[in-house]
Amino acid sequence: MDATSFGVLLGVLVTALCALVRAWRRRSFDIGSTVLTFLAVFGILAGVELIRATFLGDRSALPTSWREYVTVAGVTAIGLSLQYLVKAVREAWLKPEHGTAVQGAGATVPSVPD
Question: What is the pTM of this model?
Answer without folding.
Answer: 0.62
